[in-house]
């Protein structure tokens, strides 16, 4: 049989192949080019086939649906064949079949926020590098940390591409160009320098006292501590960013609904993180449009009020507006507003998660609770020690030097870092590839260090990598063995001890790392000291009564940032 290349089927296959190459090379994400390639091309093709009489007359009616269906099926087949073929640059990295085909699979896997467990299981099964998407790797190896995240590491990945409507301002975290990012980061560095942090200490103390008052009024009742931690961090960040007062703690509820909008947006971000091309579509949903408008108006109003009041004390706004005149070109107001909003979004939930995790583990481990409370009581005297009033934990230098407190905080950050699955980076396009520790990774590849997995790797944290054992952060002379350890394990604990802090990256590393790290640590220390100094804590019943509070951690959901289940506790004043 002779092959006739002018046959319609060959023409459709060839045109679809060209469209596939355009998709592959140019990776269009704007609606117009995408729709043109998906709808415009087959429509034109069907018309052309009919026009040039390449189809028998009786087939004209069916030409359009047939060409459309063939075009889409062919596009899908080309994609599938390439992604699974040995020719794909990432073909030699192991990973499950559905992951290699499409990241849409991860959208399904993560429908209930379980991606942190999924990636952990994949690393247990496949090793240090897993292909978790057609062009994406998850890495669990300490030698890869600096090449990915360090000073000479990789730039931010496509997740951070600006897909906002034209004309809108991008916050610092969205700056993928390292030069532009460094320029935008300068005022942030000044705002969160050691000297500037002193200016926020007073606000942390005041907000901590407000928290104690609010909790004190509700003692004896079951309270969701996770929610209260959010109220604290949100009120504090609002004050720190805009010098504003926010009333979540005073009211004991989300007064203007802003927090709910942020919570609702977490799942949206989770999907956008997995399939960034879907972000503009998701943003078109009526609920998203509404939420974005409300957030914008919240930021705008806060900024306007801040501008009316003027600078009462040095807040983040003061530094971002460059009121000291360090920069030759002062940042525009929209940039400052979007960055101030970023501070609230990036600084509230993460710190509230870390505090919740910390209180959860302290309650799960009574021996830790006792030691920590004793350290706090020794540092800040309690009522009745010859003193009329308990001493407020307001000395931040003292808190920074409390070994067990800081060990507990680090251990909470190790077991459940607030950004559980890490941050995306990309091999620089056109570079050909890069040695990532022991592995050569070709382009195009996105990757992240899976923080949850590397933090629990026994090669870096041993013994008891999955247990809350703050003593691993103490010098050996002060280390007490894990209470749950069998005597055999405990005898070998010292000789088996591994503590590789190069694998500890809750705040990430390098030029893009968390700029709020030191501020977060101040908050974590202050809130922990204030609460344990004033109250005795115990677990309350779970809301549905069907799961034990002791299993709280299993219900954490990971959508880039996390959603926490209620952490019910009962607090009573210590006397
Ligand atoms: C325990 C609390 C916190 C944790 C675990 C945490 C973690 C992180 C992580 C993992 C990143 C991504 C860094 C990267 O891409 O390499 C990040 C970025 C960021 N965080 Fe935090 N964060 C915390 C608290 C805060 C606070 C209190 C602020 C307040 C100012 C803040 C502001 C930011 C900002 C602005 C960025 C973007 C930095 C950039 O792109 O240059 N974070 N954070």
UniProtKB/TrEMBL annotation:
<dbReference type="GO" id="GO:0016705">
    <property type="term" value="F:oxidoreductase activity, acting on paired donors, with incorporation or reduction of molecular oxygen"/>
</dbReference>
<dbReference type="InterPro" id="IPR050121">
    <property type="entry name" value="Cytochrome_P450_monoxygenase"/>
</dbReference>
<dbReference type="GO" id="GO:0005506">
    <property type="term" value="F:iron ion binding"/>
</dbReference>
<dbReference type="Pfam" id="PF00067">
    <property type="entry name" value="p450"/>
</dbReference>
<keyword id="KW-1133">Transmembrane helix</keyword>
<dbReference type="InterPro" id="IPR002401">
    <property type="entry name" value="Cyt_P450_E_grp-I"/>
</dbReference>
<feature type="transmembrane region" description="Helical">
    <location>
        <begin position="60"/>
        <end position="82"/>
    </location>
</feature>
<protein>
    <recommendedName>
        <fullName>High nitrogen upregulated cytochrome P450 monooxygenase 2</fullName>
    </recommendedName>
</protein>
<keyword id="KW-0812">Transmembrane</keyword>
<keyword id="KW-0408">Iron</keyword>
<comment type="pathway">
    <text>Secondary metabolite biosynthesis.</text>
</comment>
<feature type="transmembrane region" description="Helical">
    <location>
        <begin position="35"/>
        <end position="54"/>
    </location>
</feature>
<dbReference type="GO" id="GO:0004497">
    <property type="term" value="F:monooxygenase activity"/>
</dbReference>
<keyword id="KW-0479">Metal-binding</keyword>
<keyword id="KW-0560">Oxidoreductase</keyword>
<keyword id="KW-0349">Heme</keyword>
<feature type="transmembrane region" description="Helical">
    <location>
        <begin position="6"/>
        <end position="23"/>
    </location>
</feature>
<comment type="similarity">
    <text>Belongs to the cytochrome P450 family.</text>
</comment>
<dbReference type="InterPro" id="IPR001128">
    <property type="entry name" value="Cyt_P450"/>
</dbReference>
<keyword id="KW-0503">Monooxygenase</keyword>
<dbReference type="GO" id="GO:0020037">
    <property type="term" value="F:heme binding"/>
</dbReference>
<feature type="binding site" description="axial binding residue">
    <location>
        <position position="514"/>
    </location>
    <ligand>
        <name>heme</name>
    </ligand>
</feature>
<keyword id="KW-0472">Membrane</keyword>
<dbReference type="InterPro" id="IPR036396">
    <property type="entry name" value="Cyt_P450_sf"/>
</dbReference>
